[in-house]
Amino acid sequence: MVVVGIGVVVVAGGLLVAGGRKEAPTNAIAASAQIKDEGTKPIGPPLQAPVTLPPGADATAVYAALTEQIKTLSQQAMSSDAPDLRTRAFAEIEAKLVAFREAYPGTREAVDAGFQLGTMSFGMQKQDQAYPYLIEFVAKADDSQREQLGYARFYLAEIYRGQGKYDAAEGEYKLVIAKYSDVNPQLTKYAQTNLDGLTAERKIAVGSEPVAFSVKSIDGKTLSPADYKGKVLLIDFWATWCGPCVMEMPNVKNVYNRYHAKGFEIVGISLDQSRDKLDAYLRQQQIEWPQYFDGKWWSNDVAVKYGITSIPTTVLVDRKGKIRFKTLRGKQLEKAVQELLDEKV
Known about the structure:
The protein has helices at about 25-40, 60-80, 85-105, 110-125, 125-140, 145-160, 165-180, 185-200, 245-260, 275-285, 300-305, 330-340; strands spanning about 10, 15, 215, 220-225, 230-240, 265-270, 290-295, 315, 325. By secondary structure, the protein is α/β, with parallel strands linked by helices. The chain folds into two domains: about 10-200, Alpha Horseshoe (Serine Threonine Protein Phosphatase 5, Tetratricopeptide repeat); about 215-340, Glutaredoxin (3-Layer(aba) Sandwich).
């Protein structure tokens, strides 16, 4: 996921690896109750091979040395253009953090390692993997870890929002604003922006009709969700400057090529600012489905209507004109498209 604002930062002696984002109420009580209920469940992938931890007299010393190792690995990964190198580096970071938690269970440092695993997983779009780590962290952390708690609450809000659990997301956003405004002014700003965006996002909840729009594609054709009833439609919010969007594009293209003749359509909503870059990418990748572009970046007219604050974001609409899935990738997208095409109308 590419968002605006939060990148790779060091938080309270640890490594925070995450995307960025465009710029205690009743709902929070329910969210906290769920956290208390789930915060003690065992989590984390089993170790596949022995991992060597740095030497140290106790958990504090080992974790301090481990944090330095992780910073180095992270900087190497983020400065590399090779996806396989990044993948290996982050896999090594994950393995080291998991090994530390197994070696020093119950320590404050193990709780912090869980936070690092959660934020790293979130930044790598592995939200299902991030969730239990973040749940555990907010259940076990103390007030001395306020900075991490603010971020953890924000990422939980983002996960709930992605799951369509808008009441839980609202509760977490409000907690960030009410209790953690001192952590980072930008974080509070993002929480408020995304809280405000929930109203628009509720309008595109699964089971509802997509927000209406009528715009001209880059080749002058009218694009409107209503015109695609009877087809399976993917509305794809993306940009050529968005790394995860570009990484996912070959999969989207494969699904389009395989199912277009059977009734699958895509409408691309480009958040690019440069028409030349967009046109060059479309030609190079031989992308055939229509695109809407207005050069307004995050203020793209259609993106604003849909409350888009991160990309890639997709909305998959069935042949009856109802939203059925959001932000699917990889095999999940192909499976959902096939499922909707097979449904009787």
